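WARN no homologs supplied; continuing
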Amino acid sequence: MLVFLPIFPLAQIPPTPEPPPQVEILQPQEVRTLPGQLDTIPVFNSNSPELVQTEGILLSTFPPDGKANPNAHLNFPFQGRFDIFAHHVAKPPTPEDLRTLYLGIILHNPGLKPVTIDILQAASYLSQPDAPFIELPPSVDNPAGKVYAGPGSRVMSDILRGYRQDNFPPQLIIPPNESRMLLNLPIPVRSLDPPLNGRSTLMRLRSDGIVYAASLAQYALIDGDGNEQPPTLEQWQQLLEQGELGTPRDRTPTPPDTTTSPIIYGRVAGVAQGSMWQAELTDSSTTQFLTIPQPGQAFSYGLSTLPGGRLGTGQSQSARMLVRYPDTAYFAHGNYGVQYSLTLPLVNPTNQTQTVTVTLQTPIKQDQIQEGLRFLEPPPRQVFFRGTVQIRYKDDTGLPRTRYVHLVQRRGQMSEPLVMLTMPPSDQRLVQVNFLYPPDATPPQVLTITTLEE
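OK structure emitted
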């Protein structure tokens, strides 16, 4: 059956609305260096190649001895507390090759006694179907962890709450001179349009002995009935012994001492130093309080600052690499998976009641600032931060509160406050801000303290 649609004169067709003009907003204020520093916990950081289209070794800290490709093995042992972070995307090498790519993380005990791995927290999610990149408002309360946009956002929310996903056991025991799979999970693409999928993983571990770690990519096996099966431990071990580095390789980073621009930061494949940045934000190293700004004034602390984006502080917070492949990042720029745990002992020293806000913001990236931070209104489409922030404080009635807020921030977005406090004269109020820097975010951000004008 044919359906005839009415034809309207051109004059009656509503015109496509033009986007509102974008205005740059200068926020005159001080940006302060973030006190403290990263801890020394080593982080197995597997993020290059981000896009994986071949079987191979993504990151190996095994010794190179006896391996077919010694350059693929970085010879770094773990013992005690360490983290494992992995963030990879699968895309078919050809349109008709829709085999499922598996991500394997293997641990090896080279010693003469069993080694026990305590899995303290762990989470791993796919972008499809576990955590698609959906449109969300800039700020949504997230008390139960049900709000997320992308697998990195969901993983970091789980770890922030201290969760261990059900498919991870509390412990893994590795016999002497043997290996065990810590992770053996698929990144399926067959039913997706386009056939593209990603997996983000973060684990906090503790080992009572030396272990080596590797992340590997291998396609599913096809059994006699034509069904896909995950690779076995033996097949992962064979790939580790005989395999080459996975491809395609990411862009080679700019050396740290190069002054030319633009800076190519590169993606990370190696062991970074630092799992948490814990700091108390005070007026100085010799004081115990953070004095609120004057009414109508604000100051900020840089978060995840990096070369080219130090916001006038001269501080790069990027974790240094203890070992790395030559064509990958010199530093873990962006600090994916690193927890920021910040305490603000606010004090109102005036004889007037003041209204104070604490806000996470994404200013325009600058290395040096002129007069203050710059923002865009309305902000453009590019999302620069997707993740959950925990904020603890005493409300204006004196009751302790804990909020989890999922933020979506675009480039140059000023954002809404995480908390607003009414502080009487001489009032002291402790505020704590915690979040894990999520994958698929773009640094830097700032934490801004503002005293509103009356």
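The mean pLDDT is 94.
OK
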